[in-house]
């Protein structure tokens, strides 16, 4: 497993890096069979330290956790607890679900854009129909089954997830509907 442990405008020492690797590997070994990589970023906001951790699993799931505390080790411990809780919950839900998967989930790149909010009043027409793009970023689109995509979306706490349906070439979307149910957009079944 690959670890990337860094600090945003703060220096983190070897002792903290070793502690993070040991503790995180214990948490991950307990609940995940084939983790691929982990990214842990420490930052400081006023008097508090923030810790953000992202762990990618070969099943396609991405577990994310963040926490803050007045001490850097305490921030990591709180973050590790949240990560363990997430992985424990999803391990129960995934029991035997990925037993047949022998290869890691295929992931391909895509562009992601953030568009500017409209500055116009609701009753005024905009000058142009071209939206202003604030940011363009690279994102990863995994190849998953619909069930795995729903679990990935819930694990990330996201309202929507774009994925490529297993065994098909089309891009699909799962999203949380206003009534609390999950919606699935499959262009293959469009008529």
How does this structure look, described?
The protein has 3 helices and 9 strands, in the order E-H-E-E-E-H-E-E-H-E-E-E. The chain has helices at residues 14-31, 72-94, 146-156; strands spanning 2-8, 35-45, 48-57, 62-69, 107-115, 133-144, 160-165, 171-176, 182-185. The strands form 2 sheets. A 5-stranded mixed sheet has the order 5-6-7-8-9. Strand 8 (171-176) and strand 9 (182-185) form a beta hairpin. Helix 1 (14-31) packs parallel to helix 2. Residues 73-100 form a coiled coil.
- Mean pLDDT value: 79
Shape: globular
Q: Assign the CATH class of the largest domain.
A: Alpha Beta
Q: What structural category do the secondary elements indicate?
A: alpha+beta
The low-confidence parts are: none
Strand composition percent: 35-45%
Distance between the termini: 44 Å
Characterize the main sheet: 5 strands, mixed
The ordered H/E elements are EHEEEHEEHEEE
Tell me the count of domains: 2
Number of helices in the DSSP assignment: 3
Q: Per CATH, which architecture of the largest domain?
A: 2-Layer Sandwich
